[in-house]
Amino acid sequence: MPAEILERKILEQHSAVREAVGFLDLNDRGKIEMTGPDRITFLHAMISNDVAELAELDGRYGTFLTDRGKMVSDFFYYKLPETVLIDVVHDLLPVMKESLEKYIVMDEVELEDISARTEHFSLQGPKSSDLVEKLFGKAIPGQPYEVREVDWEGDPVWLIAKPDLAESGCEMIFPGAIADGFKKAILEEGAALGVAEISGEAHNILRLEAAIPWFGRDMDENRYPMEARLKTAISLTKGCSLGQEVVSKATHVGGVSNLLMGLKLDGTDVPAKDAGILGNDGTRIGAITSAVFSPRFECPIALGYLKSKFALTGEFCQVEGAPGETSRAEIVEKFV
To answer: Are 317 and 235 members of one domain?
Structure first.
């Protein structure tokens, strides 16, 4: 792999998540706390995924849609004792909170932005479980999005099973007042395990290798969740909710015009955002949303929307690069 493609520190951070444990400070995420006796029924009627059947101390991935089925935000939500905690990108929190509040009429439910008093860390990698045992004397919960309350020096920490960048991983949400001391303990306890702080650049590479789309880069308010293939964020059996009719019709009847797919490119050139994706006859069939050089696959990889009839796993296309140049790319759902 050409050395100039990625800095050594990025490669070291990438290796830590693949072989040891990576530490991420998820300070770009905000929190909404929902309280009140109607919080479950209200949220269930608002979002694309099921809330009513969710067990306590469990969570899911969901989307909040307009009545026309377009995305307002994607987020994670957790059913905690007496509350539902919504974990959403900071930039999307105001519009999501304001949009939800517009629908509160007779419901006994309150929404509070608690971002200022909470912090959010993540551990990703095969030795994450070892570090969690050292910190808390307890294991990461067994199922994805399962939540466990643990204690760090007398302060409560919500420990969430979240292996998104590696086969083992977790996230921790806790009082912001302990953030500095808690981070120091993580790095000190994790030193013998090879812990490394993960930068935004390395995080972006790792999430693309895991084919995780990010709102604002790979999807926005003009997209339907089905276009971004957010199947785990949608329940087709939960009953009525905002945008549910559009989602149902797209799923069972007409489909969508575009699909977000992965691309594995030949060569070493990383395509720019909005670079054209071309069919074998040179016709434009889509565009790139995100792209990086992947240390894992030793080639450029990308996410991009393709016209649905061309979004065929195992087929090949061309991606525009420098003026007059293209790179051959394989169309995939996941990078393996």
So the answer is: no
Owning domain of residue 32:
21-193+224-254
Write down the pLDDT at residue 253: 47
> pLDDT (tens digit, 9 = 90+) per residue, 136-189?
999 999 999 999 999 999 999 999 999 999 999 999 999 999 999 999 999 999
Q: How confident is the model at residue 67 (pLDDT cuts 50, 70, 90)?
A: confident
Structure tokens at 124: 């990703």
DSSP string, 267-310: SSPPPPTT-EEE-TTS-EEEEEEEEEEETTTTEEEEEEEEEGGG
Q: How does the average pLDDT of the chain come out, rounded?
A: 94
Token couple for 324: 């007059």
Asked if residue 312 and residue 184 are part of one domain, the reply reads no
Residues forming a β-bridge with 215: 219
Q: Where are the beta strands (DSSP E) in the chain?
A: 21-25, 29-35, 58-65, 71-80, 83-89, 110-113, 118-124, 147-152, 155-161, 169-175, 195-197, 258-265, 276-278, 284-294, 299-307, 316-320, 326-332
Q: Check whether residue 292 and residue 250 sit in a common domain.
A: no
- Judge whether 1 lies within some domain: no
**Are 307 and 250 within one domain?**
no
Would strands 326-332 and 284-294 be described as parallel, antiparallel, or unpaired?
A: unpaired
Q: Are residues 244 and 272 in the same domain?
A: no
β-bridge pairing 58-65 and 147-152: unpaired
Q: How many domains does the chain have?
A: 2
* C-alpha to C-alpha distance for 59 and 161, rounded to whole angstroms: 10
CA 14 to chain centre: 18
CA separation for the pair 315, 330 (Å, rounded): 6
177, 51: one domain: yes
Q: Alpha helix (H) ranges present in 35-164?
A: 39-46, 93-102, 128-136
Q: Given this model, what pLDDT does residue 241 score? A: 76
What's the DSSP call for residue 81?
A: T
